[in-house]
Design goal:
- The chain has 230 residues and is of the alpha/beta class.
- The chain is built from 9 helices and 9 strands.
- The protein has helices at 10-14, 27-30, 33-36, 39-44, 46-62, 67-74, 91-95, 155-162, 220-227; strands at residues 3-8, 80-85, 100-102, 105-112, 121-123, 141-145, 167-171, 192-196, 209-212.
- The strands form 2 sheets. It has a 6-stranded parallel sheet with strand order 3-2-1-7-8-9. Strands 5-4-6 form a 3-stranded antiparallel sheet, with helices on one face.
- It is elongated, with a radius of gyration of 18 Å.
Length: 230
């Protein structure tokens, strides 16, 4: 069974109504990165950071997987599929994907704001984390999100997965966020590489990529034509 690796970004979730961070009208225009998405922001004003992600979590919980999320889940009937996502939502899992690597965390989970050598995660069932919610060691819980300036714990594992790909599908990502964007370029030389994005012609990838100039949902049929004989 051939190995497909899907590298997904904000564009796929935007089609489920989840606001992006970087695009025009995105969240960073309303909330400066320095105020809500760094360890320093948490130290200065943890209540503000907590509330920002509580609002994001509620948005995620209200959203539904779209046709692209479901398509990648259905590919598991024919391929060994791993989704490596830069998104902090859980829409791939809710669509049915069983192998999902979250590079930047999963907003549906919380983790300790203190030392946590076991990297233990806590489900956030209600949608809110309060400043009274603590881990087993007594530290306040924070969102399971990788902030600017923090390491990307899953990066090495994701790179090893990409190196095993027979088919690499890059969808809904501007390839501007490093180190995550570098994963698009570590697949084997002979792998089939596909870039699915409305702005694919402006993105910096090599000539070995098939470029499909569609949104994630609109491009599903074109993507299937490339994969149907594989």
């Amino acid at each position: 069974m051939k190995k497909i690796v899907v590298l997904s970004g904000a564009g796929i979730s935007a089609e489920s109504g989840i606001r992006t961070f970087r695009d025009s009208g995105g969240l960073w225009e309303e909330y400066p990165v320095e105020e809500v998405a760094t360890p320093q922001a948490w130290k200065r004003n943890p209540e503000k950071v907590q509330e920002f992600y509580n609002l994001r979590r509620k948005q995620v919980m209200a959203a539904e997987p779209n046709a692209a999320h479901r398509y990648f889940a259905e590919l598991e009937n024919r391929f060994d599929v791993t989704v490596i996502t830069q998104n902090i939502d859980d829409l791939h899992e809710r669509a049915g994907s069983t192998q999902v690597v979250h590079l930047h965390g999963n907003i549906r989970l919380a983790k300790s704001s203190g030392p946590d050598p076991d990297r233990k995660f806590y489900p956030v069932e209600s949608g809110n984390i309060s400043m009274d919610d603590c881990c087993d060691a007594g530290y306040v819980l924070r969102p399971h999100v990788v902030w600017f300036g923090e390491e990307v714990p899953e990066l090495e594992r994701a790179a090893e997965i990409c190196k095993e790909a027979d088919i690499l599908i890059v969808v809904g990502t501007s390839l501007q966020v490093y180190p995550a964007a570098g994963l698009a370029f570590v697949a084997p030389q002979d792998a089939l590489k596909i870039l699915l994005d409305p702005d694919c012609e402006s993105l910096q990838v090599g000539p070995d990529f098939f470029k499909l100039p569609y949104s994630a949902v609109a491009g599903v049929q074109a993507l299937e034509r490339l994969l149907e004989d594989r």
